[in-house]
Amino acid sequence: MKPPIRNALLVMAGACSSAGFASAAGAIPCTAVPVAVPSPPLQVQTVASGLANPWGLVFLPNGRMLVTERAGRLRLIDANGQISPPISGVPAVHGSGQGGLLDIALAPDFADSRLVYLSYSEPGPGRTSGTAVLRAVLDVDKLALSNSAVIFRQKPKVTGDGHYGSRLVFARDGALFVTVGERQQFSPAQDLGQHHGKVVRILPSGAVPPDNPFVKTPGAQPEIWSLGHRNPQGAALNPASGELWISEHGAMGGDEINIAQAGRNYGWPIISYGRHYGGGKIGEGTEKPGLEQPRCYWDPSIAPGNIAFYTGNRVAQWRGNLFVTALKDQSLVRLTLDGARISGYEKLLPDLDKRLRDVRQGPDGWLYLLTDSSRGEVLRVQLR
Question: Is 163 a catalytic residue?
Fold first, then answer.
């Protein structure tokens, strides 16, 4: 009998370890070392308010913003903070729990193509749903999407309302990364026959890149780029290396920062720095040969939202730093880097008292945040 893909995968992971694929053992807490040069005093200004659980934000070339609302609405926000009526043509969503209309990205050639990409929880038969990605043409003047096509669907759809992942990031080569949560199913994150708990890589058309790592693996979903993820709700391209960095929700503890690399296994639920919510041990511990270690982890959890690398000139000591939004911790985290190593930690805006879902660098060089609330806001972080 042919061995199941999961067992075959663990054999392959061991082989990868002997080839030097696995990260060095023993990850560090993200909070281990304070930053060498703290940030200057900051202030937060409200740019727009009255959004219902905003999830994803992107800047248009003219400085206006597109913002998704989890209930299934897409809004245009102008420079004065005016929020448009809902843009038409948005797909139907499974708007329950963590599901709904989620991330948004512009095509690299948006100025010519006007193409936007939306991730969302797509309803399926019965009470099932799954992460999906839609591509459409945006008409800003008409506030409408047209020529829509679903270019990715998580397989299989399952019941439950959690762990959709769902961040969208274009790579330097034009391919599109999509983070996909394991839908609270645990072991499917280790099954190459399912998209659960994976980062997938597709072409802008939805086609599979021929150099994806599992294209020739029998029974594998060919879109898979990396596996063993729990719920990656943050993703950004490192401007120095071009690598995809992601933030992942752990269980009780064990939130992680990872570099999602081709063919590598990040361990969930075999290894974790967290524990079950009832307090029990998860899997086999924190390390296992052939399974990747995170760049750093949080215990207790902060519930990380989206992440962004800073490339602006407004604050000199921020250049090249990684910023992480926190939902549970209600703060903005700054991580300094030494290559791929986390070298320093700083907690910003500790008294904001707002769940932070998204962070983006604006065209003006400041950081912009989305608050996760039924009265959600767009905030700008700038010097005091």
Answer: yes
